[in-house]
Amino acid sequence: MEPKSLGNEKPKLRVGLIGTGFMGKTHSFGFAAAERVFDLPFELELHTVADRTEELAGAAARTLGFKNATGDWRRLVGDPDIDLVDITAPNAFHREMALAAIAAGKHVYCEKPLAPRAAEAAEMANAAVAAGVRTQVGFNYLCNPMMALARDLIVTGELGEIRSYRGIHAEDYMGDAESPFTFRLDKVGGGALADLGSHALATAEFLLGPIERVLGDEVTVINSRPDGKDGRTAVEVDDIGRAFLRFASGATGSIEASWVATGRKMQHNFEVYGSRGALAFSQERFNELQFYTTAEAGRVRGFRRIQAGPDHPPYGLFCVAPGHQLGFNDLKAIEVALFLEAIAGIRAEPFSFRSGQRIQELVEAIHTSATGGRWVSTA
Amino acid sequence: MEPKSLGNEKPKLRVGLIGTGFMGKTHSFGFAAAERVFDLPFELELHTVADRTEELAGAAARTLGFKNATGDWRRLVGDPDIDLVDITAPNAFHREMALAAIAAGKHVYCEKPLAPRAAEAAEMANAAVAAGVRTQVGFNYLCNPMMALARDLIVTGELGEIRSYRGIHAEDYMGDAESPFTFRLDKVGGGALADLGSHALATAEFLLGPIERVLGDEVTVINSRPDGKDGRTAVEVDDIGRAFLRFASGATGSIEASWVATGRKMQHNFEVYGSRGALAFSQERFNELQFYTTAEAGRVRGFRRIQAGPDHPPYGLFCVAPGHQLGFNDLKAIEVALFLEAIAGIRAEPFSFRSGQRIQELVEAIHTSATGGRWVSTA
Amino acid sequence: MEPKSLGNEKPKLRVGLIGTGFMGKTHSFGFAAAERVFDLPFELELHTVADRTEELAGAAARTLGFKNATGDWRRLVGDPDIDLVDITAPNAFHREMALAAIAAGKHVYCEKPLAPRAAEAAEMANAAVAAGVRTQVGFNYLCNPMMALARDLIVTGELGEIRSYRGIHAEDYMGDAESPFTFRLDKVGGGALADLGSHALATAEFLLGPIERVLGDEVTVINSRPDGKDGRTAVEVDDIGRAFLRFASGATGSIEASWVATGRKMQHNFEVYGSRGALAFSQERFNELQFYTTAEAGRVRGFRRIQAGPDHPPYGLFCVAPGHQLGFNDLKAIEVALFLEAIAGIRAEPFSFRSGQRIQELVEAIHTSATGGRWVSTA
Amino acid sequence: MEPKSLGNEKPKLRVGLIGTGFMGKTHSFGFAAAERVFDLPFELELHTVADRTEELAGAAARTLGFKNATGDWRRLVGDPDIDLVDITAPNAFHREMALAAIAAGKHVYCEKPLAPRAAEAAEMANAAVAAGVRTQVGFNYLCNPMMALARDLIVTGELGEIRSYRGIHAEDYMGDAESPFTFRLDKVGGGALADLGSHALATAEFLLGPIERVLGDEVTVINSRPDGKDGRTAVEVDDIGRAFLRFASGATGSIEASWVATGRKMQHNFEVYGSRGALAFSQERFNELQFYTTAEAGRVRGFRRIQAGPDHPPYGLFCVAPGHQLGFNDLKAIEVALFLEAIAGIRAEPFSFRSGQRIQELVEAIHTSATGGRWVSTA
Q1: Are residues B160 and B113 in the same domain?
Q2: Chain segment C187-204, per-residue pLDDT in tens
Q3: Residue C216 belongs to what domain range?
């Protein structure tokens, strides 16, 4: 048997991954799936993974399918063979790593939040533009085919004039007052608004366009957490963040973020109300979109549960049959494919550092508003 | 056949009803059902109904089962035979009618909102206290057995310390920009916050206790409405009202009211999050309550859908079998029974004019807050 | 004050009620509500109630609003003043009571099941036809406005050619093996198929028309029950009944009845599949109907949740606002109104004894089929 | 930079894939994800893909990540370098391909249905046992962590004694009468019962153990289909198949399969009722399981919606956070991992050809039963 050995003329794109935790794994799953599901513009090479020590990195490389490992992320960033640096390290390191990678001429893919302060995010976004590299922040929920359908129904006017919006992102992973203090709980980490509200804000602007003004509310529910020794550390950030919103379009709305919402695991929900229709969505059932239209006769009107399928690209590339459902990791594969297409120049960057900066600006404005108890412009 | 003719030693309570629209009918259904379902402390006599003309009142009396009719509500209020005056006339008349009835020594049952301004509601509540008559405002959603269960789960600590609250009351009956201008749309009428937000606020305090501070947001979505001639009238009230809340207990939350939420017919929803559990509820399925508790083992935790049944009094008086469901009019029957028991001195007034005044104060505070863009005390 | 004392020229209809348990109460609620909600062709007079003793009957008369009471149902049936005899006594007495009432020239309203055997039901139906009186069996689920909508969507062809049907009626009130033996558990009582399957069969024929053949399955899950002394009594009837169905229309389907379905309180569900659409329904949320149509564009197709409202008569007579929901007792009020209209000659009898007989024939055919393990004709 | 080049001491397992359609792609996604998510006992090498022509195979190899391609599946099967043959070709070829692969000493992974007739499936299963190779049939729905939870709750007695079962697998991909005749529609293809009912039967036995007797029902709804020229071809198989079931445990139940259920995309549902609890599941929301237990106090009993998370292995290997959801392709990755562990001897074959044979026997028994209209033993 001599089957033809197959050529592959696509250009290579070599990936360096920094960080191997929850998001590091998710990204590596995303790379693996994207290669199989999409006709990518590049042949991916999972080149090097960096972690705190060489041992950790080596173990992760084997698990995640990378060829090389290093305990020093600067070596990865400086490696001339690497084209794309993927940053999933703790938030506090994003800025330094991204700036170094940009300086080395790499395309940079960074988990959210991009930076603890908007000014730093702006510095990162500006650096990328100046260097002419492509960037992406990991707003994976926006990669959902049903989110694209939602935006399309809004943009094409099927809901009429958009009037109001309600967005939520609530989970309960910080709900136990005895769960220990972590990096998320100091001011640099950012709080529920920065961690989860960022998703709610990204979804709001993805669907309804720019937010012009916000009126914020922030609450610390659990004032101290065990410090891991025998004492407790004061918590400096919000456990719940809320905001009223004014969109440039004239629509108004609200968002809420909570990481102490007992029982909620993925309540990234939104409702959109227009003059002729409405949408409702929950990330807990993200393969569905609820759609209401006044175009139906009164007696048969109702919210219909649309199930994701090949009518909702790129679902069909994952599965030719509707109703079978994408998973969370599949959203990451779509995110990877979008970034590679942006690098190849096939499309604009969908979630560049500039959009990451934008979300940080909104988070910061809400914080400023909540502190002062007054509306703050975000135009 | 000579079956025993049955005596009935209960004291009589003679009812006068003012107004025969949506709520007038609902109240008369409530009286009829309450008599059959409950062992009331009184024998009800539906004595007189008043409407704008004698003809209208006469037709309504026949339909609604009242013995007499009048085109002059003052005659009804002045009739010494009448014990209870039930006011379902348009909101603008509530104050005058109620004060007259109180002055005549009647118990007064009044639809919400009690009055357009809190000061007027206070006047009404004070007058009732001074006169020693019993009063009730029609907060029928609070009469739901599942609402009682929700409050009980909170009060007995099954949710742990209560942390946050999210309340909504959204419908779409004012959603069509071409629906004509009505009394609801001038300043006296009050807007969505007064009409629907009052329900959301009543539910919030029913469940979590007093609200201390609010930060409001009000929006007029449809700026003018057809005036019924060939022009349009400017709308002076909110189509959407929102508020952030601080409860005396330390919990925080939000409410939203909208009457332009296309597709929503009865989205009177709430979510309550505590340190050990959570609740979720929608009036669209008001015979159900969602309950989450961390007392379950991790792998089998989840929001459970409790269906109303005889375990949730007074459901069992309506139906001995669970899952059969109460209807909206049944809630009114419970409301009637509660008021009659208060009149008989068996229980405290559950929703007296004082509680109606309280809701108006909250509505007013939110309006003041929204106008000024700052937190306002409601203590 | 001299309001006009109101006349009422409607003819009187005097009601005699036999039985004061679950269904006796429900019927009396139905009479009370029907008077208020509907413009009935008669003025109802709740004349006499009969129970096992005069004392019981007297107490019930006071509670249920009847004028007279008797411990002897034969006196009620023989009273020339009574026009309509309403039978809610235990199933075993239905035949004797109904035949006596028919012989006395009364219209007869009888709870289901009409009789333990189809031949007896036929005898009752024949007697009523011969006597020229009107009859009705209590198939209240069929009085739901959403059930009417479902049938209308089928009959008008909005679902295309109907292909298949799935019906269930499952509850759990006999699920505890230690709940005592009752009349329902001997052969005359009938079992789950007779008690609950009768509802499933009535719904199936209401929606899809006549069933021609059945293939049955019956199971006794709990073989004996406590006899109330110290022993146990053998159970002679089915706890679960199932059948495959062939409709005259060519459609096929199945039904299942169970009273040992732990956790189910009112799982009276159906699904209908046609060539161009589908319906799904659950009595647990009976103010909703799920509707799917292929007339929508592919990407926005989905089952829509239609909420009951004034578009679905006679909902609007109960409440002018959609989404507020009817309750179980409201369905009984509709049932009462339908029967009074049939007595007045305004409409055909919607659920006459003939239709009750039909359901018994189907139950019997399924029993015969299950015993023999073969298809049985029901044409 | 000289990061350590990483060794990998795991033994290699070289895969040959036959067929590149829906399931061919899904399997290749499964291999890719399994490598990243699991610590597999082998290093996978995607060696060769076979399709009808060398060109098709070559294109698929590039897309799916295989090194070699061939237009002749016999060459793949005969290649001594290949350890595992994965068959996703049309059903009609399964037997011949599998027997050839077994004869060549390969482990064989085959999509369902294993063979059109149980006798052929038995031949395949026997051959595999005789050759000492490992086999697996693609029952991916059983790989769902929530399905494992369901079985565990049953086996550990949390539902008490299991009484009844209701299983469904309904879709609508054959619902259009004008969709052309395909291989699925002749007797060898098998019909809805073989294609979808096989899933329902596999789930039933997975959860409740062996089925002893069946009473079947089969219906052809669309009697002819366009033949692709100008005529129509008669359809020889069932569009809907149903069966009543007797389990060896004493439980009873039913299954239904339909591929003409308009609006249904993935209605692979089940309900299990025990003496102390119940389960309900729908593959349309396969990251959830509904669980009811009588261990709760009456007033807070209800079906709870358990969301998949790290408490439900191997979910946590895909994602450390609950509620994020697995996708359909992730189930295939689990299936792959299970097979590789069986090949490595770490576990028994979870879904061997013997279990595939079993399902075919059940399908065949139902067909025999439906044809004869009588109960058939499946012990």
Answers
A1: no
A2: 766 899 999 999 999 999
A3: 145-285+287-326+350-377
CATH number at residue C363: 3.30.360.10
- At which of B140, B161, B193 does a domain end? B140
pLDDT at D354 over 70: yes
* Boundary (domain end) residue, out of B95, B123, B140: B140
Task: Tell me: do B266 and B365 sit in the same domain.
Answer: yes
Residues C109 and C243 in one domain: no
B7 domain-assigned: no
C260 in contact with D, Cβ within 8 Å = yes
Contact (CB, 8 A) for D270 and D255: no
Predicted complex ipTM exceeds 0.90: yes
Supply the pLDDT for residue B1. 33
Which residue positions in chain C have pLDDT lower than 50? 1-6
H or E element, residue C322 = none
Q: Do the domain assignments include residue B3? A: no
Determine phi and psi for A107, rounding to 5 degrees.
-70, 145
Chain B residue nearest residue A243, CA to CA: B244
Let me know whether A321 and A240 are in one domain: yes
Residue from the list C6, C70, C75 with its beta carbon closest to the beta carbon of B62: C6
Q: Give the pLDDT of residue B181.
A: 86
The whole model's pTM is what?
A: 0.96
Q: Do the Cβ atoms of B220 and B237 come closer than 8 Å?
A: yes
Asked if the structure places residue C158 within a domain, the reply is yes
Let me know whether C78 and C111 are in one domain: yes
**Whole-angstrom distance, CA of residue D218 vs CA of residue D193:** 8
Q: Residue A188 pLDDT > 70, yes or no?
A: no
Contacts of D241 (CB under 8 A, 6+ apart): D191, D192, D193, D197, D216, D217, D218, D219, D256, D257, D258, D366, D367, D370
Q: Are B51 and B80 contained in the same domain?
A: yes
User: B115-131 pLDDT, tens per residue?
Assistant: 888 999 999 999 999 99
Angstroms from B215 CA to nearest CA on chain A: 8
Same-domain pairing of D135 and D174: no
- How far is the C-alpha of B135 from the C-alpha of B84, rounded, in Å? 9
DSSP collapsed to 3 states, chain A? CCCEECCCCCCEEEEEEECCCHHHHHHHHHHHHHHHHCCCCCEEEEEEEECCCHHHHHHHHHHHCCCEEECCHHHHHHCCCCCEEEECCCHHHHHHHHHHHHHCCCEEEECCCCCCCHHHHHHHHHHHHHHCCCEEECCHHHHCHHHHHHHHHHHCCCCCCEEEEEEEEECCCCCCCCCCCCHHHCCCCCHHHHHHHHHHHHHHHHHHCCEEEEEEEEECCCCEEECCCCCEEECCCCCEEEEEEEECCCCEEEEEEECCCCCCCCEEEEEEEECCEEEEEEHHHCCEEEEEECCCCHHHCCEEEEECCCCCCCHHHHCCCCCCCCCHHHHHHHHHHHHHHHHCCCCCCCCCHHHHHHHHHHHHHHHHHHHHCCCEECC
Say yes or no: C121 and C207 in one domain.
Answer: no
Considering only the beta carbons, identify the residue of C4, C78, C318 that sits closest to B329: C318
pLDDT tens figures, B18-31: 999 889 999 999 99
- B305 and D307 in contact by Cβ < 8 A? no
Q: Residue C343 falls within a domain, yes or no?
A: no
**Chain A residues closer than 8 Å to B294 by CB:** 262
Give chain D's end-to-end CA distance (angstroms, integer): 66
Q: Provide the number of structural domains found in chain A.
A: 2
CA angle B200, B203, B205 (to 5 degrees): 110
Q: Which of residues 288-317 of D touch C (CB under 8 A)?
A: 292, 294, 301-303
CA–CA dist D190, D364 (Å, integer): 10
| pLDDT tens track for A341-359 | 999 999 999 999 999 999 9
What CATH number corresponds to the domain at position B40? 3.40.50.720
